[in-house]
Write a structure and sequence with these properties.
The chain has 193 residues and is an all-alpha fold. It is built from 10 helices and no strands.
Length: 193
């Protein structure tokens, strides 16, 4: 078999949890204004370009800057932990950027869907699970994120804003736990434990 199902499932779950499209829904609905499918396509396309750039060139970039994977894990874990805490506490940093005139759909594509956490995890997964597994997991995560954004109006009406926010906060807790694992793994690698 070309792809290890266990590795794929782990990579998919990790990337999807870090992408957390539920966190993007409130802002996305404000800027999509009834054009959810078109907006979802634009945001996910931007997210995909950034993600696959790091999937294919991330290791070369680390090598060029003489950064070890262990150091990258620690730095990425700390960044990811900050994002996780923001999600758990319901902070809306991205909303401030929308109010100050940043292109909103670009903002949802990156850094909300493909932000520092996804970039870090893409580089780590490519090294640990291989490019094929990571690419397949990334495509599935992006496709599911697109679907959730495309039907976000319906989701918001059916689930209600509170349910969407609660889901995002639970995902934030999982993101924070993933960040702790990354920092611990990076420190072990640096210390040779």
């Amino acid at each position: 078999m070309l792809i290890d199902v266990g590795e794929f499932a782990k990579a998919f779950a990790t990337l999807f949890v870090i992408m957390d499209p539920f966190a993007s829904i409130p802002i996305f609905l404000k800027v999509a204004r009834g054009r959810e499918v078109r907006g979802a396509t634009q945001a996910v396309l931007i997210a995909a370009i950034v993600l696959f750039a790091f999937l294919f060139f991330g290791h070369a970039l680390l090598k060029a800057f003489h950064i070890t994977l262990s150091s990258f894990k620690v730095a990425g874990g700390l960044t990811l932990g900050t994002l996780g805490v923001e999600l758990v506490l319901g902070m809306e940093v991205a909303e401030e950027e929308v109010r100050h005139g940043h292109p909103a759909l670009t903002l949802i594509g990156t850094p909300m869907l493909t932000g520092p956490g996804v970039i870090t995890m893409t580089v780590v997964l490519t090294k640990e699970s291989g490019a094929l597994v990571t690419a397949c997991a990334a495509l599935c995560s992006l496709a599911l994120s697109w679907l959730l954004l495309a039907i976000s109006g319906l989701l918001s009406r059916v689930m209600g804003r509170n349910a969407v926010e609660i889901t995002s906060r639970v995902m934030g807790l999982l993101v924070t736990a993933t960040a702790v694992e990354m920092v611990v793994s990076g420190l072990r690698g640096m210390l040779g434990v």
